[in-house]
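Good morning C.,

I know you're traveling, so I'll keep this short. The sequence:
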Amino acid sequence: MAGRLPQRLWHQPHLAAALLLGLLLPDLLLRLPAALRGGWPAFLLPSLEALLLAAILAVAARLWPAGRRIVPPLLAAAAGLLFLFSLVDALLPLYFNRRLALATDLVYLPDLYRLLRDTVPRWQFVGGLVLLPLGLAGLGYGLARAFAPLYMAIGELPRRGVVPFVLLGTCAAAVAVLVPGEQVYQGSSLPRLGAELASLRSSRSYRQELRQEFNGIASPPPLAAPSAAPLSLLQGRDVFLFIVESYGYTLYSEPVHFALAEPFLRRIESRLAAAGFRIASNFLDSPAFGGNSWLADSTLAAGVRIPDQTAYEELLASQVKPMAAWFNEAGYLTVNSMPATTMSWPEGDFYRFQRKFYFRDFGYRGPSLKWAPMTDQFAVAVVHRQAVAPARQPVFVQYVMISGHYPFSLIPRLFEDWSELGDGSVYAREGAVRRMPVPPGATTAGPAGYAAAMEYQLEVAADYAVRFLAGRQALIVVVGDHQPYSGITGQGKTRSVPIHIWSREPELLGPFLRRGYTPGLVPRHSPPHAGLESFWPAFLEDFSPTATAGR
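The tokens, ready to paste straight into the viewer:
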């Protein structure tokens, strides 16, 4: 039987083509992510994954010839999963400046679904929902059909004919497992897959380490002498924290972005100065890039770096005292404005704000702006009217801004008369929302759209400060949450974000200037920058009579 196989291949070209397809299809398929990861030279190298699959198929075909209905579909599923893993692992650095982390990224799938639903044109979103499962099913079916004749043919080979398959597969496995680093064979995803599977196994110990760290932060050392009056050096001044969506270092570091931004930055700076505000600025290193704003928000609030979803979940379950809790103890009314929180969020109780404004609390009746369900100016106006203006005690307000979200194509108009905003239906008027052009083949409005979105958010904060806070004793903090995605910044960029301090009282800026902040709205500091987690411990120390232990 084995001797007749070459003759059959000679007389049945379609069989030869089927066998060749079974060898080449998985190889070519698994090379595509390699080209994204290691460049097109990596595409010219044979796929280690395909060689390993071929070896497994050869051994199975010799040991279990009757398994032709079972083994090819299983190997097809394995090849498909390897392809998906390799593709996602190659794409993530292109957009979010980081590698795939299976232990934490799987929980982001619902958020990815909502992001695409709210930002992608409806026909593309629906088409993707239909085509994705069909494409995956077709891929699996095609691989199974390609493996089946190869499985049968190898079963007819003499024993020595299987040896090359086994040797190649063994070499592929050895390279993937034994050779350290990823530079020797950049095209393979096997070392990365092994590392991710190992991280899944070690996730329990990682959680234990996080709990120990957070318990240490929540429990001050026995000999520590905490301040008797935390934040008393603020002397009852209001504190306003603006967390600006996608406001990143790139706006200042990239010439194409700064050329678009400098005119409005200078205009805002001049307007604040004319109203008596002094400004100090710096950069801080965020744990997030291109998204995952909650990692930056929690890092800022807790004063401890939260690099991933696992750390975030453990923080919310910990006894770490967040920023708002300190203000509560100092006699402040604490208010949190999060207009993009559209669903129930009991986990938000960790932050201990006395008043919380989520989407349903704003009474917004205007149009949705893709991912942003309302405009920043409207959200700020509602919170000021309902919580800040009637307050009879000092306030700490956190405004989480959302109008600078990907894809930067819908930019609201800034209304000079805030009373015009009403219930938000004003944004349905012609000219109330500017549509930035999205170039053909692009997914965002590019640098022009990004700069316009940052201009709007900073203008809202500055206009609010001048119109509503100039008569109050206030300290205003404006900070970015993360850089925009890599399609705006370019690949391999820093995670840094700008931070500004505004106040009409020069003594409030003194602690920041002593810590290296520079006067003006345009910071000049080069990387590396201090972590975003350093802000709150320093703030607590600077505005409390003695250094405060524990956070």
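Safe travels,
E.
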